[in-house]
Structures are given as structure tokens and as C-alpha cells.
Amino acid sequence: MNSNRLVLNTLVAQAAHDAGSKQEQLVKDLLNSGINNIELRREYGNATIKELDQLSELRKRDRLTYFYSVPDDLFVNQQINLKLLQYVAEAQRLGAGYIKMTLGDYNDANPDFIDELLTIIPSSIQLNIENDQTASNSDTNKLASFFKQFDQCERKVGFVNDLGNWIFTDQDAITATNALLPYTRFIHLKGFVLNQDKKPETVSFVQGKLDWQEILKNFPTDLPIALEYPADTNMLNSDISKLLNE
Q1: What Gene3D superfamilies does the entry give (predicted)?
Q2: Which domain holds residue 38?
Q3: pTM for this structure?
Q4: Domain count along the chain
Q5: pLDDT at 111 exceeding the cut of 80
Q6: Cβ atoms of 105 and 76 closer than 8 Å
Q7: Which label site among 36, 179, 184, 217 has the fewest CB atoms less than 10 Å from its CB?
Q8: What is the CATH number of the domain that holds 175?
């Protein structure tokens, strides 16, 4: 696999974050892996102008590509989230070309949102929606209905397929992947194991039960793939090497 496809979500450095490291330092540390595509987690910082500018300077200095993960719903009470304007402004300040959110209270009976949404999102930013670990945000029919609204639009909202999240909503990853494949623009790769209570827990894609090699065959070979699970340096480097040698 081409290394240009690989993205590191700063969750891989969760231990350092929990120990008090700022996200700017996490990014600097992750650059030692040789990967220059970084998915920033909004909840790992405070989104102040100072912080956003520091991360932007780091991006320009090291020629990084930023993805911006926002832990919020696009729709709240069946209306576009009023905070979306703020998230877009933050992404622009960072120089991020991608924003990821969850769908939320989407109602397919009201297509009037399309023009409003495409007005808010500048052409320089790609908005993507992810399946999370809740049934309401991971209903494949609901997600497909949303993405189909953009079939006649030149600009579209795409899908982030988090392969390790389907198990949390009792869905088959391959079936869900095929259902949403036409809309998929980004992949989150992680695995899962079942604990003593038969509940899923997130782990490295190498360690988990997910048949990641078979599932990745379904996707176009140019889609970015992000690693998103806690890992120490040795594990991360080993996993990167395994993926790049596929």
C-alpha cells in the first residue's frame, strides 16, 4: 500500500495525551513514524486561536495534511448544527481539508438543508460523516438516504467507514461496507476483541477479530486509511509496516 494513503489519528497517542501532552506535541511525535497525514481530534485540545495557529504552523513547516475529527452531530433537532460554522472556521484556521462528524437527527423528508449545507462548507473542505458506536448514527439505510440527497450535486458529503465500529451496533462489517461503498471517501481501520462479558473492545487491526485484509479488498485503492486505536510506539510502527507491505 502506498504510504500517502495512510493517516494517523492522534488517538494512537492516547497514553501521551492522558499524561498531559498537548496535541501539537502528539503530532510532532507521530511524525517519527514517517507518516505526514494526521487526523486531529477536536476533543484533544481547546480550539483556541493560539492552539489552532500553532498546529497550522506545524502543518506548514512539515508539509502535513490535516483531517479534523469533530465529535458532534451534523443535525441537531432535525436542523443543521449551529456549531458547524465554528467547526468550519477552526478547520480553515488549521488548514485542514477534511472534517468528520456523525449524522445525528437527520430527517429525509426535508431536503431543503442541501443548499444551506453546501453554502456553509467551502469548496476547500471535504465534509464526511462517520458511523460511530451508536445504532442511531450507524443505520446504513439512514446513512444511504442522506448521501443519496447529493446525487445530483457537483459537491457531495461523503462517508467515513469506521470498520471497527460495526460490531458495537451488531452489524456485519462487510455487509455495511458494501451498502455504503458508493459514498465512501475515507476508512478508519481498527480491530476488536470480545471481553469476558462478551462486549467488544477496540484494539489494533492486527490483534482483532476483524478480517481486515478481506474487507480492504472492497475499497478503491486510492482511499485514505486512518489508524485509530491506542498504541505504543513499537506497536504503531509494526502495524504501519504490516499495512504498507500489503
Answers
A1: Divalent-metal-dependent TIM barrel enzymes
A2: 3-199+223-245
A3: 0.96
A4: 1
A5: no
A6: yes
A7: 217
A8: 3.20.20.150
